[in-house]
Amino acid sequence: MKTKDRLLYLSLPLIMLFAYTALSKLLAPEAFRRAMLNQPLPEAFSHQLVWLLPLAELLTAGLLLYPPLQKWGFALATGLMTSFTSYVCLILLGYFDYVPCSCGGMLEQLSWEQHLGVNLLFWALSLYGFYTTLRPNTTLRKA
Predict the structure, then answer these.
(1) CA–CA distances in Å: residue 70 to residues 13, 28, 54, 64, 100
(2) One-character DSSP codes across the chain
(3) How confident is residue 9, by pLDDT bands cut at 50, 70 and 90?
(4) pTM for the predicted model, two decimal places
């Protein structure tokens, strides 16, 4: 499989994930703000995340759509998924006193263990996509 095709197949699920999550937050900003303020995070940090998260998610989707900048999209996707997955791990380890889920869509119906599995899948896609953008094209030429 060509590297270009591989990157397309890796980026499409990530584009859909980040575009969907960003738009769901931006289309219901008050609900997202309340959910963020209900998280076990410092209030000032939660206020900043209300705008930073959807913007970072939209930026990630946009970078993944544009092949010359896909490397940066995969890097940002890997960073975001590392953060989200670490948060779920802290929840599963009992680090927080309370844990309201601010997820929407299908993730709202999942257990924290299932949520971790979904996050790990998207994290692996992101990481492999980033790795693929770093590798030189290794197609063999006939002499």
Answers:
(1) 14, 28, 19, 5, 33
(2) --HHHHHHHHHHHHHHHHHHHHHHHHHSHHHHHHHHHTSSS-HHHHHHHHHHHHHHHHHHHHHHHSGGGHHHHHHHHHHHHHHHHHHHHHHHTT-SS-------GGGGGS-HHHHHHHHHHHHHHHHHHHHHHHSPP------
(3) very high
(4) 0.86
Say if residues 126 and 84 touch (Cβ distance below 8 Å): no
Residues 66-121 pLDDT 10s = 999 999 999 999 999 999 999 999 989 988 887 766 666 667 778 889 999 999 99
Taking CA atoms, 11 is separated from 43, 83, 111, 135, in Å, by 33, 19, 26, 16
Share of the chain above pLDDT 90, in %: 56
What gap in Å lies between CA 84 and CA 59, rounded to an integer? 17
In the predicted structure, residue 10 carries a pLDDT above the cut 90? yes
**What is the per-residue burial (b if ≥16 Cβ within 10 Å, else e) of 29-44?**
eeebbebbeebeeeee
Q: What value does the mean pLDDT take over residues 137-143?
A: 46
